[in-house]
Amino acid sequence: MPLDEDKYPAETGRRRFVSGVVGSAALSAVGVGGAAAADSLTDAAGEGGGTTTFVAVENIDGPAPRGMPIIPIQIDGGTLKGHWPEYDEEAGVAIEQDYGGSGIDYSSAWFQYCGIQTASGIYPQADAENTFLNSQGSFDWQSDVEKGAPLTVDMFDDYEEWGNGIGSAGLGKPAGATWRQTDDGGVPVQVLRSTRIEKIANGETDLPSSVQSFIEAATDQGFIAWLNKCTHFCCVPGFKTQEGSANFGAENRIYCQCHQSVYNPFSPVQKQFVALPRPPQTDG
Ligand code: FES
Fold first, then answer.
1. β-strands 133-134, 173-182: how paired?
2. Domain-located, residue 1
3. What is the best residue among 230, 236, 242, 245 to mutate for testing ligand 1's pocket, by most ligand atoms within 8 Å of CB?
4. What InterPro entries does the annotation carry (predicted)?
5. Number of H helices and number of E strands within the chain?
6. Can you tell me the distance from the alpha carbon of 260 to that of 245, in angstroms, rounded to the nearest whole number?
7. Least packed by Cβ within 10 Å: which of 20, 69, 213, 228?
8. Are 33 and 11 in contact (CB under 8 A)?
9. Whole-number Å distance between alpha carbons of 72 and 204
10. Averaged over 252-275, what is the pLDDT?
């Protein structure tokens, strides 16, 4: 199976951009069988990239090469958080092996693409905020919540019937948020609470056992979350954020308006990609 290749590395800073290109080109030449070699090449260009298995919301249409990584949800006293694994100094990543007994290792490398690998909160040892913080702009209901306020379960009480005129109502209630917030900002995520996610977590669909175990551990009360960065050219897509999504059959899916990639939030899949190395940190 060919590995996906990032076509659009680090967005910020020319030095980072160049280093990302070198890492990506070298890694793509290595291929699936060269994980060990990939590690050493990765070290030359940065830290902690290479072949990575992850769980995604599936890419089902358009030019995106793969799905977007799922962020395991944690509900802490009614507040929605994304789980960040423990930093493993030896491995150089934050990693939780065998997440939820799934056999899949959940790691910070899942988010190392599209320039996200340069975000300060994505560095494995970063002291960043794991609470999903309200970002206004995607959905009317979120303008009633203060920008940057924690998202809480009660905000989604109407999730079984919620709709906004795009596609069908009752498929779930979404929110845009930022995650891993530091003084430099956070990364974009989308959160969705849906009865369909409850059904998936209850084993009512036919998933491979590894993905099933992952989803049982990574979702809670029907909530699922993913890093909301299109794996094509890094736009920010959305579930029911674009009226025009109906023209592409994506009104009930996650739609990226840049080049019409479509993702299915109700189809978790296990994939591999080559995570980009993180540029060396120059401060803190
Ligand atoms: S489809 Fe091209 S950036 Fe999303």
1. antiparallel
2. no
3. 230
4. Rieske_2Fe-2S_sf, Rieske_Fe-S_prot, TAT_signal
5. 4, 14
6. 8
7. 213
8. no
9. 20
10. 97
133 within domain boundaries = yes
Query: What's the domain count of the chain?
Result: 1
Question: How high is the pLDDT of residue 91?
Answer: 86
Residue 257 falls inside a structural domain? yes
Range of the domain at 141: 14-275
Pocket test for ligand 1, best of 6, 233, 242 (most atoms within 8 A of CB): 233
Among candidate residues 246, 266, 265, 244, the one with its CA nearest the CA of residue 254: 265
Torsion angle of the four alpha carbons 195, 197, 203, 206, in this order, in degrees rounded to the nearest 10 = 110
User: 157 lies in a domain?
Assistant: yes
- Residue 39 main-chain phi, psi, to 5 deg: -60, -45
Q: How far is the CA of 119 from the centre of ligand 1 (A)?
A: 20
**Confidence band of 195 (pLDDT split at 50, 70, 90):** very high
pLDDT, one tens digit per residue, over 35-79 is 333 443 444 457 888 999 999 999 999 999 999 999 999 999 999
The amino acid occupying position 14 is R
